[in-house]
Amino acid sequence: MAKIEFGGVLEEVVTDEEFPLEKARDILKDEIVAVLGYGVQGPGQAMNMRDSGINVIVGQREGGRSWQRAMDDGFVPGKTLFPLEEAAHKGTLVQFLVSDAGQVATWPRIKPCLTEGNALYFSHGFSIAYQDQTGVVPPEFVDVIMVAPKGSGRTVRSNFLEGSGINSSYAVYQDYTGRAEERTIAIGIAIGSGYLFPTTFKKEVYSDLTGERGVLMGCLAGVMEAQYNLLRKHGHSPSEAFNETVEELTQSLIRLVAENGMDWMYGNCSTTAQRGALDWGPRFRDAVAPLFDELYERVVSGKETKIVLEANSAPDYRERLQKELDQMKSSEMWRTGATVRSLRPENRKGT
Ligand SMILES: NC(=O)c1ccc[n+]([C@@H]2O[C@H](COP(=O)([O-])OP(=O)(O)OC[C@H]3O[C@@H](n4cnc5c(N)ncnc54)[C@H](OP(=O)(O)O)[C@@H]3O)[C@@H](O)[C@H]2O)c1
Known about the structure:
The protein has 351 residues and is an alpha/beta fold. It has 18 helices and ten strands. The mean pLDDT is 96. Residues 37-42, 60-61, 64-66, 97-100, 102, 105-106, 123-124, 126, 148-149, 152-153 line the site of NADP nicotinamide-adenine-dinucleotide phosphate.
């Protein structure tokens, strides 16, 4: 582990410098890693581990699109692709990567497949941290571990292929074998994490649920819509409102923030933008702070979990979701977005 200062606070992190892939391969050489679920994280982690030289099989319910996708990605039925329980039986390190609601539904069938010394692996603290609601209580004779990539499964794969990585947090909830931590870090390296930082199952899920409801998606979508609506209300064209709200952010500013940080961004915009943004930043911060307090309280108390489990386990969840997304897609703002994207030079080429 390397000790690195983050903004003046010392943290221990792991990269492939301290923990090279060869070491990960050696630690996992006798393991069969069974990836249960081939949705978003499943494919990214399974293919990265396979490319890293780890013995990987996939468990997926048969017949659907995900089964077909696993086959398209080179997993072979009866050899490296099995129904869920069969893969869980064969695996020594069982990665539970069906959706969080799917974990609740399938746990009663997966639990009996685990044997002494197995590792039960998660990519989210959800099922364990909210055990009272999920019913996922692992037997005491297995390791319970987590590597949680801080990005979509799609970028877990695409960044790996580009030679970059997604940062991941990791945690050990239960160490039966005495090898839980090295197994965890080995998987974190094999899936191509940029760097790994320690957490607990609870901290991971609290920060993750807050982040996705907050700045990463919910808050971002909300403030974008508020600004777009404001500009439209005052007679600005859809094109102008969208460019000033979304396109300039995604195509220009946020990329510079990713490369150089926010202070650099402030230092390198017009002096007009600079003064105004520096003055308004704290006002927005203070305006949303109470909402963030409420959000975190609801996450910790399990209220958000209750909503998620109820909604996601409804039989018509997908149809209802599709309706909501279609509504968003057909709104003026996001239809404008589609047109703006189609006008990007790279998308106009050849038309
Ligand atoms: N999405 C991400 O990028 C991301 C990022 C970090 C961590 N995670 C965590 O990674 C884990 C997996 O998430 P995910 O987003 O990859 O999940 P997902 O795409 O929603 O998972 C879908 C997978 O779960 C299976 N599944 C769902 N319900 C099932 C049921 N009742 N019985 C059997 N199989 C069922 C699906 O099979 P079918 O296709 O047959 O329905 C599919 O293989 C979760 O713990 C999540 O929190 C996800």
